[in-house]
Amino acid sequence: MLDLAFIRANPDVVKDAARRKRVNVDIDALLELDARMQEVRRETEATRAAQNRLTKQIQAAGKDKEARDRLIAEGKELATTLKDLEPRLRELDAQLYEQLLIVPNIPDASVPDGLDDKDNVEIKRWGEPTQFAFKPLDHVELMERLDLLDLERGAKVAGSRSYVLKNDAARLELALMLFAMDRISKKGYTPLIVPALAKEHAFIGNTQFPRGREQVYALEKDELFLVGTAEVSITGMFKDEILREDQLPMRMVGFSPSFRREAGTYGKDTRGVLRVHQFNKVEQYVICHNDHEESVRWHETLLANAEELVQALELPYRVVVVCTGDLGDGQVKKYDIECWLPSENTYRETHSCSYFHDYQARRSNTRYRDKDGVVRYVHTLNNTALASPRIMLPLLENHQQADGSVRIPEALQPYMGGQRIIEKRS
């Protein structure tokens, strides 16, 4: 969340950020609520101070019964007043906190204005769209011919947007996850396998709650939720901690099974395994100093790491800067990597790379003590290293061969036991 003092001092900046991000939040109403809370807090603190003075006066009154009785009566009146003020203060504080949770972060000046992903701005391309000397198949046709996918039985088990990966596709998904974990951890990132279940505070800290609650599967009896990325769990790991400055930057690469309800996407991307409820994901995550320039450097580094993976998989792609209307509430700036998908003759998003300044840290209360002893909120960043089965779509489609087989990129072959081709098993 944003610093309340910043909102008070810069209401027009915050209003403009909300407008550019298409977030419906009433900053004037929030500030009015804040003013009422401050007034009640001052009254509460003044009443407590008066109580403390009375306590000392009662003690000083000694055996003067008349003075003691008068002071005790005054004390009872103050106690009654405080009994009314304290719950009012707690209620106003809770209301203000709920409002602060939906105030969006300020986008960087370099972020383009726009309504949605159609207004994202391309800044880079790598590789050329794959050309075929034969009629290429889409990923569903390929996977079904190679006996890699069972959509019908997946739906029998778990309903729509469910699937079963079979044979080499099952091995391929595990290979992709290990490939990403291996490549990133060798750069000095601590490998983690984190819980796929998390408490509410992790989603609040991560900025997925309250606005994105409808996308999350809830286990209400256990007060737990299924994560959509390891980012949620890693954010929750550091709640209420004060780190040492010499621990920063912290670089992590986390794996987790991931889940998403895909609420509001009825009829969209229903073919195959592009948009599914369950998937596996490897996520890069950085905690660094409270410094804009350092955040920007790590943002570019995380993007470069992800590009290196996609290049090793020999997939044509482009990088876009995400526009204001397509940014999440907490993101200062975001890049997407979009891989070429031959069956659709277009690029499809496979990776996201974001930085948040201290927006997540304020929500999760994650701080560090600097060399001068000052406690500051950390900055956080995250990036998709690889998510599957989504990455399988461009992988299979771009590397398909005329005979219906699929070539395995050289960098991935060691993780497939040296296998070079995916072909139908006899």
What layout of secondary structure does this protein have?
Blueprint: H1 4-9, H2 11-21, H3 27-61, H4 65-100, E1 121-126, H5 139-145, E2 149-150, H6 151-158, E3 164-165, H7 167-185, E4 190-193, E5 197-198, H8 200-206, E6 218-219, E7 224-226, H9 230-237, E8 242-244, E9 250-259, E10 278-288, H10 292-312, E11 317-321, E12 333-341, E13 346-355, H11 359-364, E14 367-369, E15 375-377, E16 379-388, H12 392-398, E17 406-407, E18 421-422
Parallel strand pairs: 4-9, 8-14
Antiparallel strand pairs: 1-11, 2-3, 5-7, 6-7, 9-10, 10-16, 11-12, 12-13, 13-16, 14-15, 17-18
Helix pairs in contact: 3-4, 8-9
Keywords:
alpha+beta, 3-stranded antiparallel sheet, 426 residues
Low-confidence stretches: none
- Overall shape: it is elongated
Helix-strand string: HHHHEHEHEHEEHEEHEEEHEEEHEEEHEE
Q: Give the class from helix and strand content and strand pairing.
A: alpha+beta
Rounded radius of gyration (Å): 27 Å
Largest sheet: 8 strands, mixed
Give me the number of helical elements.
12
